[in-house]
Design a protein that fits this description.
By secondary structure, the protein is an alpha/beta fold. It has four helices and five strands. The chain has a single domain, classed as Transcription Regulator spoIIAA (2-Layer Sandwich). Helices cover 50% and strands 17% of the residues. A five-stranded mixed beta sheet has the order 1-2-3-4-5, sandwiched between helices. The protein is globular.
Length: 128
């Protein structure tokens, strides 16, 4: 089974979640993503769900966990490309992704990450 590629773009990582995401794949992805964020000093992660057509409660929770773990490691996380049916299913499962940023697509997500990273840098400099 091939690992899910993590595309390193500047200070960001793009994770294109495949349609056939299994429980074991999402667990390995969470570990790999955490290590890459630390190793590469990543400032933002885009979790692209545009290919995903089905989400169960485990995968939904793990996606939320990945965004939360990324934030705890000091990087912004944005989930992009959620299809309407997936959004409805996640709400019905009680997986509202509270406090996790979302965007309609990768382009909007990149813009959000750039703004959030710039704001974080300004805040850091102003506190010095």
């Amino acid at each position: 089974m091939n690992p899910i590629p993590l595309f390193h773009i500047g200070d960001f990582l793009l994770v294109s979640i495949p349609e056939d995401l299994s429980d074991s794949m999402v667990t390995r992805l969470q570990d790999s993503l955490s290590r890459k964020v630390i190793k590469l000093q990543i400032k933002g992660v885009l979790l692209d769900l545009s290919s995903v057509t089905i989400v169960d409660s485990f995968i939904g929770r793990m996606l939320g966990n990945m965004a939360s773990i990324t934030a705890m490691l000091g990087a912004e996380a944005i989930i992009v490309g959620i299809q309407p049916a997936i959004a409805i299913t996640m709400i019905e499962l009680g997986l509202g992704l509270n406090n996790i940023k979302t965007a309609l697509n990768v382009d909007q997500g990149v813009i959000m990450l750039q703004i959030l990273a710039a704001d974080k840098a300004i805040d850091y400099v102003s506190k010095q």
